[in-house]
């Protein structure tokens, strides 16, 4: 089976095999990680090794703190304003909205402060709004954006420049798929279930000077100061998901690190974008060329408006060939192929062959 699911998504086979082998008996203890106390030495070791691997992979300096939290990236849509918006004298924050997920983040943040979308609203989520049109507020608590919009297939090709205002990125669907300079960011949030593990754990990396501004209404489980002070153990952490993330991070390290992942992501996505470009309009990607995602390739079949019957047929044919998860997001339609780190080049080549034969049979 070839798994192109958008998340939860494919995990490296060797990781799954290791998890299977250790499932009932972790490290000779006779119990599963799932059955272990989160305060045991063994679990503490899992946490610190996972954290250290992440620090190595992303070159995270000492003045950044790492949390493993519950509540998903969606929980962080609330946690960010709850923890940070008070840094601004007018409780305001700037948002860049390039797709479904950043729009949801705005909706949540509006409950807690004055949210300014810094550019004219996009009619369609198919591009990054022109930077020269951004109206950034120097007194904003932070500038927020989504580095890769999973549903729309829009990915930032650059890191936004925000001067002294801390930049915050949702990297749920592209973290560890390319190198970046963490010192350009105030914080990064990422649900694990696409590129770095299974559902249940959300990674938060934050610069330490941004901690300590939470609103009194902030639920304690989302309070960064409390969770950092307790090494993410204020309450029971998603222990099994953290363990699995540790295995995935080891796998990334053993497979060329972040640069290794980056090369593969470009290769895989280019295979599909080239097939689209060479299809005489049978396939069309509606995202502008500079903003096309390396992780989630979205396209329509049978013209830019999409022929829904043809798209349904394509999804069915793919299913017959044991390729799963390519139906577009319900808010977007069409086809979406998710190419997270664990998806292989050979798997993408098999999809490209299907795209070719499907087109030839109908064009
Ligand atoms: N942000 C992005 C970019 C996502 O792709 C998703 C989920 O698909 C979310 C946020 C929401 O994550 P969760 O379901 O873990 O809350």
From TrEMBL:
One of the GO biological process terms: L-serine biosynthetic process
Reaction catalysed by this enzyme: 4-(phosphooxy)-L-threonine + 2-oxoglutarate = (R)-3-hydroxy-2-oxo-4-phosphooxybutanoate + L-glutamate; O-phospho-L-serine + 2-oxoglutarate = 3-phosphooxypyruvate + L-glutamate
Keywords noted in UniProt: Amino-acid biosynthesis, Aminotransferase, Pyridoxal phosphate, Serine biosynthesis, Transferase
GO molecular function, one term: pyridoxal phosphate binding
InterPro entries xrefs: Aminotrans_V_dom, Aminotrans_V_PyrdxlP_BS, Pser_aminoTfrase, PyrdxlP-dep_Trfase, PyrdxlP-dep_Trfase_major, PyrdxlP-dep_Trfase_small
A Pfam family it matches: Aminotran_5
Names of the cofactor(s): pyridoxal 5'-phosphate
SUPFAM superfamilies: PLP-dependent transferases
Top EC class of this enzyme: transferase
EC number: 2.6.1.52
Pathway: Amino-acid biosynthesis; L-serine biosynthesis; L-serine from 3-phospho-D-glycerate: step 2/3
GO cellular component entries: cytoplasm
Residues in Aminotransferase class V domain copies: 1-351
Transmembrane segments: none
Gene3D superfamilies xrefs: Aspartate Aminotransferase, domain 1, Type I PLP-dependent aspartate aminotransferase-like (Major domain)
Similarity comment: family membership: Belongs to the class-V pyridoxal-phosphate-dependent aminotransferase family. SerC subfamily.
Name of the molecule in the record: Phosphoserine aminotransferase
Species of provenance: Phallusia mammillata
Lineage, highest ranks first: Eukaryota, Metazoa, Chordata, Tunicata, Ascidiacea
